[in-house]
Amino acid sequence: MPQFEPQLYYVTTRTKGEAKRIARALLLEHLIAGANIFPLESLYWWQEKICEEEEFALFMQSSKANFARIEEVVKRLHSYEIPCIVSTAITQGSHDFLQWIHENTKNNDTK
Length: 111
Description:
Blueprint: E1 6-13, H1 16-28, E2 34-46, E3 49-63, H2 67-77, E4 85-89, H3 95-103
Helix pairs in contact: 1-2
């Protein structure tokens, strides 16, 4: 069995409803253990101009093995042409919390 590698996923969305819809879809498939949604202001380059928008940040706890499937679901449900979908390793954390992530996510590693 492959080793569990916890990850924190970050996705930005146009609306809070879109963030909730994405989180619920990922939860139903047990691709994430949980999600947090925060309002934010974003400034970024798009089509050769600087844009400034209100967005919502979606932080999700899962495993490295689930990246491809999470990306697929997010792209299917997202309204942006190029959605922000990134992850970073959780290198330290409460043992109990990391165990909770592991117990509440499927392991989609194909190794």
